[in-house]
Write a structure and sequence with these properties.
mainly alpha; two-stranded antiparallel sheet; 4 strands; 47% helix
Length: 613
């Protein structure tokens, strides 16, 4: 009868690991004889010990199955659009030190506007795309709002199971629970009293949107018990629906013990031209500016305040100037910024804003005065003063340093109607080129209006013909790929060839320009196809592999020498008109020529950290 083998010692596995690391010549395995059989004995012992270790494991307690995700009532994404989403999420662009090269569209940079377009149409995200969508949103914070809106309740369900996606819970007040509705007063009161700070901010913003007075009263009821940093955030929510009925509460906030709260309250009051604070600021600022009629040309004289008294501080004027700024000019700028612009024509002789801005200013106060008027025009959303301060786009001073900087001009443009905004920037580009236009293009609505888009393309063509350094325009070219109307693609056909390089041009510049224009044309046509896929609601009929950009093509004729199909068809638009392609779209880099695209339907584009010029 065989004897029962002895139980292994607790250190048996460690002894075997040591023997394996040192070698059987230096360390004989436990229970084995030294020599040529030692390696085999080591492996046999390790196998047996592995079985013992596994057999000795105690099974863990089974976890309860998670509750199913909430149903998403939105309609399913069309099959073609779902396939497009997979291509967009799979793209991983690599940008080298010299800028992106090649003619293939940058799919990841098209994802933000695709998400905006799909959210406008109310489609639900395919379940299989949610992990990749959440991963993309995790890596790019600019994608998160649109991505989480598209992903819907199932993304929050997944986020509770994967720590990598917990940002979705933080970005959604209440971790995905819906905010109280207009009739759920008890639930709203409980959330306001007991909720987390982010939940309370979201609740206040929601109530403010539908009932400004109710939101203000809710905030006033607990104002004295809130922390200073919380009061500041809550007060900032009053910007939505700001009106004269908010003035008493904001006047009370002027005496708050927090300087930041007082400054925010003063800023909100100054945005109400009829408020008592605005009237006080108008008197103070008016006492600092006058017209001198003794000179040959009427001239503005500036006498900045000599002190910052308690009343000025109470009304939001910061007494301590930043480093490098004089105290008097610092106080003066704050007074003019907070004064109602409508009072200046009366105080300055009945002149219009254009006439006031055209007046010379004595003693080098021009920059300080105009900069303060710019901030006032942006705060008060005064389009007349914005037009006066912007001036004519073709003016010599508009293209360089002047009384109004390009950053200030960009803010002023934001107060104008969208059509007028695009027209002004188009005129600026026609007169001054693209070297200073990047900030201005960022405030124009997307897709760019036809005059603006053509001005950008013409300016790029002029820069190419002049032999300009091509990489200095990569930022504008990237904006054009995302913001040009797809209908402009046909105008690019004449720019696709490699131009003759002038003697003083950068080496290889012609090839770079040709690649950039080819990529721009392919991107615009791809955007047209993407929109058609979302609008048609029918899958793309594809009987061949996709091209390099992920666009499925239906082969209906012979291919060229590179193996690229010559004839291709794509889905129809809303009216049922087929979108025809009549040139290659494969890896050869030749763009597809598409007629009758449906465009981008006017949806805005989210641009993430574009590079400057």
């Amino acid at each position: 009868m065989n004897a029962t083998p002895p139980l292994p010692s607790p250190t048996a596995w460690e002894d075997l690991v040591t023997a394996a690391l040192l070698g059987t010549d230096r360390r004989t395995p436990p229970g084995a004889a030294p020599g040529r059989t030692a390696p085999a004995a080591l492996l046999d012992a390790a196998a047996a010990e592995t079985v013992r270790r596994r057999a000795g494991l105690r099974p863990g307690r089974a976890s309860p199955r998670p509750a199913p995700a909430a149903e998403d009532p939105r309609p399913a994404l069309p099959v073609a659009a779902a396939r497009r989403l997979a291509f967009l999420l799979a793209d991983r662009p690599g940008t080298g030190p010299g800028g992106r090269r090649g003619t293939a569209p940058d799919l990841m940079e098209l994802l933000p506007q695709w998400l905006t377009a799909v959210n406008a149409r109310g489609f639900a995200a395919p379940a299989e795309s949610l992990p990749a969508l959440l991963d993309a949103a995790r890596g790019r914070t600019d994608l998160r709002p649109a991505a989480l809106e598209f992903a819907g309740p199932r993304a929050l369900w997944l986020a509770r199971l994967n720590p990598d996606w917990r940002f979705a819970l933080r970005a959604t007040p209440g971790g995905g629970t819906s905010l109280p509705g207009p009739t759920e007063t008890e639930r709203a009161e409980k959330l306001w009293q007991e909720g987390l700070f982010a939940e309370r901010v979201a609740l206040l913003a929601s109530i403010r949107f539908r009932d400004p007075d109710a939101a203000r009263e809710l905030l006033a009821a607990s104002w004295s018990t809130e922390r200073a940093e919380d009061r500041l955030m809550f007060l900032d929510s009053l910007r939505t629906g700001l009106g004269t009925r908010d003035e008493p509460f904001l006047e009370q906030a002027l005496t708050d013990r927090s300087r930041n709260v007082r400054a925010t309250a003063a800023e909100l009051l100054s945005a109400l031209p009829g408020s008592a604070l605005a009237a006080r600021m108008a008197v103070r600022a008016g006492a600092c500016v006058a017209v001198d009629h003794t000179l040959d040309t009427p001239t503005l004289l500036v006498e900045a305040p000599h002190e910052c008294d308690a009343g000025m501080e109470r009304d939001g004027v910061s007494a301590k100037a930043p480093a490098g700024r004089g105290e008097r000019s610092w106080w003066f700028g704050q007074l003019v910024e907070a004064a109602p612009l409508a009072t200046w024509p009366t105080r300055l002789g009945g002149r219009t804003p254009e006439q006031i801005v055209a007046l010379p200013v004595a003693d080098d106060w021009l920059g300080e005065l105009h900069a303060a008027w710019c901030r006032a025009a942006v705060r008060q959303r005064d389009a007349d003063w914005s037009r006066a301060l912007l001036g004519v786009p073709s003016a010599p001073g508009a293209g360089g340093p002047g009384a109004v900087s390009l950053a200030e001009r960009a803010k002023l443009l934001g107060t104008l109607p969208v059509a007028e905004r695009a027209e002004w920037v188009a005129g600026f580009i026609a007169a001054h080129g693209l070297s200073e236009a990047f900030q201005l293009l960022g405030v124009c609505p997307v897709p760019w209006a036809t005059p603006l888009g053509r001005a950008v393309v013409d300016a790029l063509n002029i820069a190419r013909d002049a032999g300009s350094y091509p990489w200095s325009f990569s930022g504008v070219m990237g904006l054009a790929e995302r913001c040009l109307d797809p209908e402009e693609a046909t105008r690019l056909d004449a720019l696709l060839a490699v131009p003759d390089e002038p003697e003083d041009a950068s080496p290889g510049a012609g090839g770079y320009w040709a690649e950039a224009f080819q990529r721009l044309g392919r991107t615009l046509r791809l955007r047209a196809v993407m929109t058609a896929e979302l609008n048609s609601g029918t899958p793309v009929h594809a009987s061949s592999p996709s091209d390099a950009s992920g666009t499925p093509v239906h082969i209906s004729g012979p291919s060229d020498d590179s193996g690229t199909p010559v004839h291709a068809s794509s889905p129809s638009d809303d009216s049922g008109t087929p979108v025809h392609a009549s040139s290659p779209s494969g890896d050869s880099g030749t763009p597809v020529h598409i007629s009758s695209p449906s465009g981008d339907s006017g949806t805005p584009v989210h641009i993430s950290s574009p590079s400057g010029d």
